[in-house]
Design brief:
Structural class: mainly alpha
Strand content: under 5%
Number of strands: 0
Largest sheet: none
Radius of gyration: 22 Å
CATH topology: MetI-like fold
Low-confidence stretches: none
Order of helices and strands: HHHHHHHHHH
Length: 248
Amino acid sequence: MLHRRIYQFLIVYATGICILFLIKFALNLSDYVIPSPKEVWITAGQVFIRYLVNVMDTLAVAVIGHILSIFMATLVGIIGRLTSGVGSLIKIAAFNIQAYPIVAVAPIIFILLGDGLASRLLIASMICYFPLLLSVLGVLTEPVSDIEHFYRMTGRLTWQLEVKIRVFENITKLTTVVSGSATLAMVGTIVAEFIAADAGIGYTIRIALYQSDLAKILVALFLIGIWTSLYLVCLEWIGHLIQKKWQR
């Protein structure tokens, strides 16, 4: 699984790099616009360790933000499954918050929380929690009629048991969504760092952009892709273990 995921990323990255260099040589662009392969290689040797540390910093924030978003989506999903006015209000509020673009909300977050860890975590969580919320709501509001009818008739159906039944019946779907939303957590963290943070690979990319140094950006993108792929593999492995445990 790990080798396949890494190979897939390397193929996509190599294809993008080749297209970039083809454009450079076809249009005879200068190294200032698109760096040469040699310049990219030299730059990678110069900044690799520093960028690796920055990517790991970003990944750590993304992982924590992703976990927070899972808890947020689960909590809102459990409350939102209720047919009462409170459940409807929670769902409407969650949908309306997501309607605001993160680039519009981010300045408010940075003003209130500063440009440190808290802002990065909040933005990462906000970006990836909505697809999780939609999936959780879809699962928890869809009855498993046969099983729930049995427990309801025997008087043993509680809301906790109802949630467990519906999660168990859709565990594959949920683990897939959790794994897929991990990339959004990484994107959210990088966006937060790019806008106003003072650490992480997003901040590094912003500095490289101001310097018009595309070689550094390409190195950063390579490291982002590698570590995101590793994180996805870990999530898929954990999801596989959870499915096996629940299906026993």
